[in-house]
Amino acid sequence: MKSLILSKNSVNGQEGELEGKLLIKPQKEKVLLFCKKVGNIIKNMSSVKQETLIKKLNPILQGFANYYQGVVSKQTFGYISYRVWKYLWAWCKRRHHKRRYRWVKNKYFHQVKGIDWIFCCITKDRRGEDKNLSLFQIGSTPITRHIKVKGEASPFNTEFAQYWESRQKQLGKKRWAKGSKYEQIAKNQDWKCPICGEALSNGEEIETHHVVPVKNGGTDKADNLIHLHKACHKQVHSKSKRVSLEVWLEPCNG
Q: Rounded to two decimals, what is the model's pTM?
């Protein structure tokens, strides 16, 4: 997974010492193995609905992207995106081998946010309303570099409490797309879990909770959603805890 590039500096026409630049990239064998895995999944799901296939592929593609987005992976992500498109195009043509290619393209691939050839379909949400379901675009995954810890800043040293709070907030901003609804929810919470008061990006799994349940008429708008750590979310829904989320939030909002 590592590649070392050595180059010589030339200063005033004279060669300097060798300088090394370490580029960490996904291993070629693992990338090809991943593509083969995705291809087999698509091939083996030849008779399922487009919605089912997208829901199967999205967590697989997003998991790979999350693992490698901190290294030099932009070219790799683009290659995987191309391979996935080829698998999907073959999947579509097998289902409609007598149809013209334009008809097949218009049925399964659409324009989303100005980008054409997005594998997507219309599905229903929990209220029975139409919504777009798109394949995760691994080729558009931004590369985020690891932020080194400053000096001897220890999370157990109270003198660096402000530093660690700022650091965790910066890490949290990379979790959701800039300008998205979910980023706005995190901003409204000051990037903290309102139940435990800890930073959202402390390494725990995060879940999004409806303050007013959908069954009671709650919406999916930002003002009705809140990010919680998975353990905190379980506490809110625990039958043994007869405390509503509003009561939990009261000391945080005060």
A: 0.69
